[in-house]
Amino acid sequence: GVEGASAAAHALSLPADAYGNDVSDIFMFYTFCLFSLISSVDPKFLKLTKLDDKIYSSFRETFKELDIKLLNPDDLKSDEAKERWRPFCNQFEGLVEDFNYGTLLRLDCEKDYTEENTIFATRVQFFAIEIARNREGYNDTVYKSKCAKS
After folding, report:
1. CA atoms within 13 A on the CB side of 136
2. Model-level pTM?
3. How far apart are CA 101 and CA 121, in angstroms?
4. C-alpha–C-alpha distance, residues 51 and 37, integer Å
5. At CA 112, angle to CA 111 and CA 113, rounded to 5?
6. Which domain, by its residues, includes 73?
7. How far lies 60's CA from each of 39, 65, 82, 116, 141, in Å?
8. How many domains is the chain partitioned into structurally?
């Protein structure tokens, strides 16, 4: 509900060190919070960072053709992809806390976090893709399916 969405939004806004030393737990919590948020609040109204506009515009400038609805792991992990992602990510060093720390990212945005539907990505990649999914309407399916069950 609204209280859960508000708590999740607050948790996403906190710096990673607010959660202690276990980085894997921190980012699992971030991803859980994001999924809780897009299940509870219309994703087009979500703001994941203070830099959403900058992250989104730079992401779409750099990755115009990237299919964010259903990610191909090669678009993140191939040698060619890494060469494209590196300068994109590095521009957020010092701007996005722990910008290059690892987190889980859903491959298919219409599905939940499962072992088969996740890939390890950097925090900036996660933010860029999830901000784009929110703004471009791809996370609407999760939100609408949760609303239909209510």
Report:
1. 17
2. 0.75
3. 8
4. 18
5. 125
6. 2-149
7. 24, 8, 16, 26, 21
8. 1
Residues 139, 145: Cα–Cα separation, whole Å:
10
Q: What is the pLDDT of residue 15?
A: 55
pLDDT tens per residue, range 80-119: 999 999 999 999 999 999 999 988 899 999 888 888 999 9
**Which tokens go with 45?**
């109204």
pLDDT given for residue 150 in this prediction: 56
CATH of the domain at 92: 1.10.3560.10
C-alpha count within 13 angstroms, C-beta hemisphere, residue 45: 9
* The residue to which tokens 């889980």 are assigned: 104
Q: What is the DSSP string of 35-52?
A: HHHHHHS-GGG---STTH
